[in-house]
Amino acid sequence: MSEKASFSRYGKSFQEGLVQLIYEDRPFADQITEVLDINFLELEYLRIFVDKIVSYRDRYGTHPSVEATITMLRTELDEEDEVVRKQVKEYFTRISSKEATDTQYIKEQSLDFCRKQNLKEAMMKSVGLLQSCSFDEISKTINDSLKLGSDNNFGYDYLADFEERFVPKHRLPVTTGWKQIDDICGGGLGKSELGVVIAPTGAGKSFCLVHLGAQGLKEGKVVVHYTLELGDTIIATRYDSCLTGYPLSDIINFKDEVYEEIKDIDGQLIVKEYPTKSASTNTIKSHLNKLIKRGIKPGLIIVDYADLLKPVVVRKEKRNELESIYEELRGISTEFSCPIWTASQTNRSGLNAEVITMEQISEAFNKCFVADFIFSVSRTIEDKQNNQGKIFIAKNRNGPDGMIYDIFMDPGSAKIKIMPKPAGTATSTIPANPVTLTPKMQQDLLVNKYEKFRKRK
Asked: 232-250 burial, b if ≥16 CB within 10 A, otherwise e?
């Protein structure tokens, strides 16, 4: 007699992940419950949990909500052993506060296992039918088994997935380090989101990206910083200055002090240098996959900067290539479930502008449509002399935009901070922060710029 088939060889973590997916992913639950034998699960508390989910689906024709699951676990476990009851409730508490990981692997492996076991059972049944049934009936038995567990996800079902719309979506934002900006964008840039810093040459794009990366390090994230313009050691030195406050010009004299301050930092920084226009988004994706294989999962990606990436597909016009690059970066942020910050250079009209809007964005205006958050940095000659400047919130999917903030920027120590509004200030040439452009002004700005590009095309 052969040993009863089970998921035991996959281990406890795999089985807990599988059950979490059955509970959280309605289309996957539809697919695997066609071929799943609950007894494949090695652990009793997981069998009981899945049984409650499947029984609810069979009885009511819909996937259980969070509230329904909580009620079931409160009222339908009385007949179970006290230890098992506790295990079921503790398991539910754990999965309610953490996201499932390795989802694609778990789905593929569990479906493959269940479908093979189902097919094996159908073949054994067919052997018994050889003497008494027709070929068509045997063929139907095999074919029906092959159909079970196949992909039946036809998309988001408006009614069947009703509850999913009301489940809190965890953006897991990484702070910008500027409270005023975090307040308007939901705590920072979230996973699967693309942020863009717009500035003219020499205004501090790279310093802004280092500042944003440093905030990720302070939060304990793995920050992967791609540089296509400056050397990797130059970028790393800027992080030294940003994190410790020691001036860039004197970092070499404070080697021991810098190390003492950064050695216990929670995050991990990886700086990867590529020559200008030598790397594409495919290069970045390949590098990220290699890191993941080594157990290094990125929590924040910095690309300094996207305009210097090589296009994957060469197109007639540069603006079309740039649009594709930003679309591909947005795709990478989704694929690796982490935020990406990059930068874009303004055209010549942005060099001496007191406030840079999307009107001054260089080459490809359509990259504005792809990004989730865009802010510009403007610094006139006088601003540079006084370590001042302005940040303009050009686009914000998660809140208001159009605000202008006065900033202090000291490239000598890689320090950037938003200045509080001076007390008693009545008027200024550029309104004190925050100032909101009206929706009509923003709309006119975008429409005019789009029309210009369309006519040029």
From this structure: eeebebbbbbbbbebebee
Q: What would the two tokens of residue 228 be? A: 């296509």
Among residues 5, 3, 23, the alpha carbon closest in space to that of 92 is found at 23
* Digit-coded pLDDT (tens) for 28-49: 888 888 888 889 999 999 999 9
271 sits in which H/E element: strand 268-273
Interatomic CA distance for residues 256 and 127, integer angstroms: 76
Non-local (6+) Cβ contacts of 73 within 8 A are 52, 88, 89, 92
Q: How far apart are CA 207 and CA 61, in angstroms?
A: 55
Place of tokens 């030598």: 278
Residue 314 exposed, middle or buried by CB count within 10 Å (0-12, 13-18, 19+): exposed
Distance CA 351, CA 203 (A): 9
Q: Is the pTM of this model over 0.85?
A: no
Residue 173 DSSP code: P
Residue where the block lists tokens 């990867």: 272
In the DSSP assignment, the letter for residue 3 is P
